[in-house]
Amino acid sequence: MGATTIRTKKTLVNTVLYTLVILSLIWALLPIVWMVLSSLKTQAGMFTMPPKFFFEPNFDTFKYMFSAEGNFLKFLTNSVIAAVSSTGISLILGSLGGYALARANFKRKKDISFWIISTRMAPIPAVMLPLYLMFSELNLVGSMTGLIFAYTTFNLPFALWMMMVFFKEVPAALEEAAMIDGCSRFQAFVKIAVPTATPGLVATGILCLMFSWNDFLFASVFSGHSSQTIPVAASMLITQQGIAWGQAMATGTVIITPMVIAGLAVRKYLVQGLSMGAVK
């Protein structure tokens, strides 16, 4: 009787958990699936009732966007350059700084570490005006260089803090053994610490890339006509005449596709990286 009751309770709990997981997945994925399907429909087909989930795909919207008239390829190129450049700079400097904070011993190290991450905690609108004034003096407003630096101001503190945590998980004995064999401190960093912390490096890179790729506020303020990114282009589809639903859905599909592919490609490293330091 007792065993039967326990099995019944366990079955009930599992049923409730699976139901919640399924409902959560539907809640999260349905808007994305709807957007992708709508991007492959005609304007009239998007608003057909009842909605059709099986239909002949229409790629006219994508053809127009990537044509010379649509000019979408320029926005896509700008997004790739800004996101990849900012992520690369943040990973390089963040790895160096994070390693220094993880291995060096000096006064106020914890205070400095907290101050670095606290700059990332500040809301974006709070730093817009100071950055804009500084960038104006340096003639960086409206340029691709200015946009990359703007992204880096938020990505770098995050990358530095994350890499500091990951490098703390790397046994210092490995680097000491390498230095006994003749490696310098920098060689031990490059040949031992960085490869060992690769999952953390990948996880940090993906998160920095996602911020830069999806950002609208920085791009809307610091980019110019020749450096506008995809999120800015998406905002232009909302006009006084109405919303270009076909292009809006296609633009959203283009925005999420690279991040989904990148996440799936490095999911093993992403899980390992985000779980580093979680278990002592």
UniProtKB/TrEMBL annotation:
Bilayer disposition of the protein: Multi-pass membrane protein
Record field: transmembrane: 12-37, 80-102, 114-135, 147-167, 188-213, 244-266
GO cellular component terms attached to this protein's record: plasma membrane
UniProt xrefs under PROSITE patterns: ABC_TM1
Short name of one Pfam family: BPD_transp_1
Any one biological process term the GO annotation gives: transmembrane transport
Signal peptide from the UniProt entry: none
Protein name: Sugar ABC transporter permease
